[in-house]
Amino acid sequence: MSEFFAMDGYAIFLWPAYLVTLIAILANVMLARRAHAEAKQEARRRFAIEDEGSSP
């Protein structure tokens, strides 16, 4: 098992690369969720304004 984590001496390069990749993926997911929530909120706001303007 220790051979796996040592990765034939390349662990000092590979584990930080894995960490950076994981952080980038998590940041991408978080930013996408935030943008999606903001877009939904904006759409609801626009529909509410549209409904107010179309009332006779």
Please characterize this protein's 3D structure:
The chain is mainly α and 56 residues long. The chain is 86% helix and 0% strand. It is built from two helices and no strands. The protein has helices at residues 2-6, 11-53.
Which short descriptors sum up this protein?
2 helices; single chain; 56 residues
Topology:
Layout: H1 2-6, H2 11-53
Question: Could you give a quick summary of the protein structure above?
Answer:
The protein has 56 residues and is mainly α.
What integer value in Å does the Rg equal? 23 Å
Determine the strand fraction and express it as a percent band: under 5%
Task: Give the helix level as a range of percent.
Answer: over 70%
Largest sheet report: none
The N- and C-terminal alpha carbons lie at a distance of: 73 Å
Low-confidence stretches: none
SSE pattern: HH
The SS-based structural class is: mainly alpha
What count of domains describes the coordinates?
Answer: 1
Q: Average pLDDT across residues?
A: 91
Q: Give the overall shape, derived from the CA principal axes.
A: rod-shaped
